[in-house]
Amino acid sequence: MVEFLHALLQAAQNVFLSPENIAWILGGSILGIIIGAIPGLGPALGVAIIIPFTIKMDTVPALLFAISVYDGAMYGGSISSILLNTPGDASAAATTIEGFPMAKQGKAIDALMACGVASALGGVIGDIIVITCCTIIGSFILLFGTPEYFLLGILGIIVVSRVSKGAFYKGIISGLLGLSVTTIGIGTMSADVRYTFGSWELFDGIPFIAVLMGMFGIATMSQLAGEPQGTISKEEVKGSRKNGILIALKEWPTIIKSSIIGFLIGAFPGTGGSVANFVAYGEAVRSNPKEQFGNGNPKGLVATESANNAMIDGALLPTLLFGIPGSGTCAAFLAIMILHGFRWGHSLFSGEGLVILLTIFVALLLSEIVIIIFAFLTARHIGNVTTINKNLIIPFVLVMAALGIFTLRFSFIDLLAMGIFGFIGFVMNRYGYPIVPAVMGAILGGIIEENFLRSLMLGEGPWIFFNPFTHPVSLILVLLILFVFFQPIIASMKVNKKT
Asked: Where do the structural domains in the chain lie, given as residue ranges?
């Protein structure tokens, strides 16, 4: 406990006494809000697009900048939901149900301000939960060794394949595609040269950043190009900031309950903000049967937004504990962690690792303050962001992605790889193959292979994963993998028998 309190104090000093870190959090939060407010972009693309530009940064500023972009984008999605009835991202979809009717009633500013306060309070509640649980989590993570991390990587890809949109087998194929990328180049634990086809430029393999930028950046922009441009009338942005603040504070029981729901749902890998958004809204409707929803009820509005930002803390838990991203945005955040040599697992719960871990969550607290201030200052003008012509957004994002990837290793092969995986991502979107499992496979592939080979060398052959006496956690993970993989197959067989 003494070590934890000392680390928490040092984390607070890292955030609040460092002008550099404050600047990165401030800039990241505002950038995230703007990105989230533009329909079609969202937090995953926002974090992905900044990855190459964080390489030259120190570890802590890079992580704080990325997490602030994530946090800001989650609130930013509510802006286009309220003003355009078009969510900036799937995680803000339920916000349209109550937010847009409020805007039509001349309460757009009320709704924007209420969302800002609810998002911030939801994030604060999520931060408090995760910081409080850190000591318990630290004791739990010590049960995991090399074999367990290999199995967790496999379990993570299967779980995300299971819960992603589309058929389960499509998710598995997507994950295997990502894993196959990591087999290119010199072997992780050997000097074997694999699948380079005689090209020395492929000896170092294809960086997972190229895969991530292609599938999130280029594929998303290709999809955005085919969508209609939204517009908003200036007359619609009316209301009172004071009323918006009072609306949120009045609904504090809903905010607390929805924040806990968002945190718990976020902790399940692959569920993400869209699930938290709708579940929290559904609970608000269920617990208030005498009230009418769908016509601008503030309870539904604050429920969705508080759940969204609390979900971030929950989604970070499996990412930081086991390297299993709780969402697509967490996959991009995990990529930044790995780029800076910041490994997930037990090293985060002692020494310098614990300080950096707590610094991330303390930074989220500051980001919530930025969200409230930004919402208050820009409520009457933020609607202009949603009208930015997509014909300006698309080339800007593509150029930034290309510059970022090229400066990574100054390699045209990386640019080519990004383009190829952008096309692959576009095709996958078109035919219902989820992208997140592929990105996870590309990020975790090297770690999975390394831990598998190390386990074989340290243990007594492949049976080390099934030994209930020396590795009971491994056995549990193996059983979980088998259950998650075969359960949908068994369920479909039962359905076929009934029909």
From this structure: 2-458
170 CB neighbour count, 10 Å cutoff: 18
Provide the sign of the torsion angle of the four alpha carbons 84, 88, 93, 95, taken in this order.
Answer: negative
Runs of H (alpha helix) within 51-145: 59-84, 95-104, 108-132, 134-141
Beta bridge partners of 194: 185
| Phi, psi at 193, each rounded to 5° | -100, 125
| Six token digits for residue 408 | 């990574």
Pairing of strands 185-186, 193-194: antiparallel
Please, what sign has the CA dihedral across residues 319, 67, 337, 414?
positive
Residue 193, classed as helix, strand or coil, is strand
Q: Which residues contact 412 (CB under 8 A, 6 or more apart)?
A: 406
Q: What is the DSSP string of 267-308?
A: TSTT-HHHHHHHHHHHHHHHT-TTS--SS--HHHHHHHHHHH
Encode pLDDT of 47-90 as tens digits: 888 888 888 888 889 999 999 999 898 888 888 778 777 666 66
d(CA 56, CA 67): 17
Residue-by-residue DSSP string for 332-385: HHHHHHHHTT---SGGGGSHHHHHHHHHHHHHHHHHHHHHHHHHHHHTTTGGGG
HSE, side-chain direction, 13 A CA sphere, residue 59? 15
For residues 437 and 157, the answer to whether their CB atoms sit within 8 Å is: yes
Report pLDDT digits (tens) over 196-239. 887 777 877 887 778 877 887 788 777 777 666 554 444 456 77
Q: Which of 218, 240, 247, 230 is nearest to 306 (CA)?
A: 247
Residue pair 438/428 in contact by the 8 Å Cβ criterion: yes
Q: Rounded to an integer, what distance in angstroms lies between the CA atom of residue 208 and that of residue 196?
A: 16
Q: What is the largest CA-CA distance in the chain?
A: 72
Question: How sure is the predictor about 301, in pLDDT bands with cuts at 50, 70 and 90?
Answer: confident
CB 68 within 8 A of CB 24: yes
What average pLDDT does range 93-116 have in this prediction? Answer: 83
DSSP state of 184: S
Asked if residues 30 and 66 have their Cβ atoms less than 8 Å apart, the reply is: no
- pTM, full prediction: 0.74
The alpha-helical segments, DSSP class H, found in 133-167 are 134-141, 146-163
Element (H, E) at 194: strand 193-194
Residue 118, SS3 per DSSP: helix
With 0-12 / 13-18 / 19 or more C-beta atoms within 10 angstroms meaning exposed / middle / buried, residue 391 is exposed
Q: What is the mean pLDDT of residues 181-189?
A: 81
